[in-house]
Amino acid sequence: MDNYRLVLLLALGLILMMIWQAWEEEQRASTPAASTAEQAKRAESRRETSVPTVPGASPTAPAVSPTATLQRGQRLVVATDVIKAEIDTDGGDLRWVWLLKHPVSVDRPNEPFPLLRESDKDLFIAQTGLIGHGTEYPTHKVQYSAENTHYSLEPGKDELRVPLVWRGPDGTRYVKTLIFHRSAYVVDIEYLVENRTSKEWSGFFYGQFQHSYVEQGGMFSLPTYTGGAYYTPEHKYRKVTFADMAAKPLNVETTGGWVAMLQHYFVGAWIPEAEDRTQFYSDVLPNQRYVIGVKDLTPTTIAPAQSGRLHARLYVGPKDQNHLAQVAAGLELTVDYGWLTVISAPLFWLLSFIHRGVGNWGWSIIILTMLIKLAFYPLSATSYKSMAQMKKLQPKLQSLKERYGDDRQKLNQAMMELYKTERINPLGGCLPILIQIPVFIALYWVLLESVEMRQAPFVLWIRDLSSPDPYFVLPLVMGVTMYAQQLLNPQPPDPIQRRIFMVMPVAFTAMFLFFPSGLVLYWVVNNILSILQQWNINRVMVAKGG
Questions:
Q1: pLDDT at residue 179 tops 90
Q2: Measured in whole angstroms, how far is the alpha carbon of residue 160 from the centre of its chain?
């Protein structure tokens, strides 16, 4: 009996350990490995600049020192049905992108979430440019001109084009066009190069993100990932943390794939042409800004008096799994379920399938919980039968404890003999519980990572299943149901263990106060179903007298 309780305690503790470990790993991963001064020294030693080096250029070529603040030119305001954006004529940067379908919070439904933002403390912008040998190119440091300051997607139109013009000192005319689309978070970046010289033009495209390091929250912050990532046909999906960028620049050559900057629920990704040979790179600027991007390795050439185009795609939007897979291969992996993806992905598919029928994510979680409980019913029944048998032995176990007192060796021997006589395996209920733990953790990541759960209402006061219950009702109900479960189960004969198990509902309730309400809802429903199953098994066994 004591062994059974200890194993059960370890199983429940495993949940806490794995969730805490995941949080710790993400915290370490998102913390810079070096101080600001050390990073600045490394940047100077590598002669870093916010403009990437030209492929094939001498590594000792002079570099432009990055400024501590972004330059500001004229602002262009762009509006579609899903995006509001601000473009700066200084470099043609995307300085702000608000997602109109995703409010900041349920309490501010009319305030769209700013994914890209020009903020000193929380900078996240997208930059593009052309680089090459021998002459001046339109990097993200040149000043463009624009005909208008406001651009809106017209009714009946599916495309909105925002052209920016710059002329090089040699007479070459460049038109950088940002192309927005209806009901889409993909922005096409197109460069029209009009070579008005007598020499062949040769250049390389690059697109990159600049992101400032943001200090993570306290111990009750969600263990979500903020940092870089990339995908290639060779390496598949890999993360590049801020610490990785500070320690060693990213340098991956590939054909196809994408490079991205991730945060909770949302992602920005550069997607080059599938057939282009490119390099994924990263850098850390002296002002502690992190750069990750992609640049061409094969130059585009344009004959004298001719014109040509360079093109790439930018995705700035939510981690909508069904849509991401259509944008680029592997982009759906930015919804990172970790090492339990093999379980989490099917759970999300099933949850989405249920949602298409009921139209409410809360009821979908309840139905999913019932299906999971049904799938594990045979294992649960075995566990509960073992517990019911153990409960019947409580008087005999207590008698043995009184007989042998503190002689642990004789007590354990007598207990083993009793189990053998009654044909009971004291560990018979442990395996079913252990098997269900990965499912719980996998569902935890589904509810935590899926943007579909963000601000999804359930009923009454539950207005956001991805946030904690504002009135702590569900965690308290969870604690009560957990306590009720313990009353149905056999009590440890050891008083210390008995006290520990009486404290566990209180400890779990305190922990679940800060969990997403969707996850607590799952746990509450699971507990209620477990109580009903255990009560029924106990009743049947008592009726049968076995």
A1: yes
A2: 30
